[in-house]
Amino acid sequence: MKLVPFALAALLVGCATSNHDERASLLAEPVNCEAAEADIAALEAAMPSRRERALSALQTVTPIGAVSGVATGSYRDRAGVLTGRTQGELKTRIEEIETTCGISREDIVETE
User: Fold this and answer.
1) pLDDT tens digits along 76-99
2) pLDDT tens-digit profile of 43-72?
3) Given 1, 9, 17, 82, which is the most exposed site by the fewest CB atoms within 10 A?
């Protein structure tokens, strides 16, 4: 019975880091108009899902989730998903690529 909190902490810690690393990588890359359509598709695919937002809520507001997030350095990322900051950053990046490269979502849909 004493192992239940530790097992829960391990589960909460293990579920959050890969998506955050991928998103950070996508946001850090310079705008490349030759790969704009692929970059936009990757950014749209990286948007937090409803499941991920719910999991981030659980990981952010529960005491064991908050402690594990602080310990692993993922608390800020989880909170960003929960508050919508992450989705806003991804949308802003998509708009930046569209503006810089002079494309719109209609152009992307028509070429597919």
Assistant:
1) 777 788 788 889 999 999 999 999
2) 999 998 889 888 888 887 787 777 777 777
3) 1
Sign of CA pseudo-dihedral 85, 15, 24, 103: negative
Task: Return d(Cα 69, Cα 79) in angstroms, integer.
Answer: 10
> At CB < 8 A and 24+ separation, what contacts does 77-82 make?
77/16, 77/17, 77/20, 78/16, 81/48, 81/52, 81/53, 81/56, 82/53, 82/56, 82/57
Q: What is d(CA 93, CA 55) in angstroms, rounded to the nearest whole number?
A: 24
Token pair, residue 58, equals 């659980």
Residue 94 and residue 43 in contact, taking contact as beta carbons nearer than 8 Å: yes
| CA 52 to mean position of chain CA atoms | 9
Token digits of residue 32: 């490349």
Please name the residue that has the structure tokens 């950053």.
89
Res 110: pLDDT: 54
How far is it, in rounded angstroms, from Cα 33 to Cα 88?
A: 21
Whole-model pTM over 0.90: no
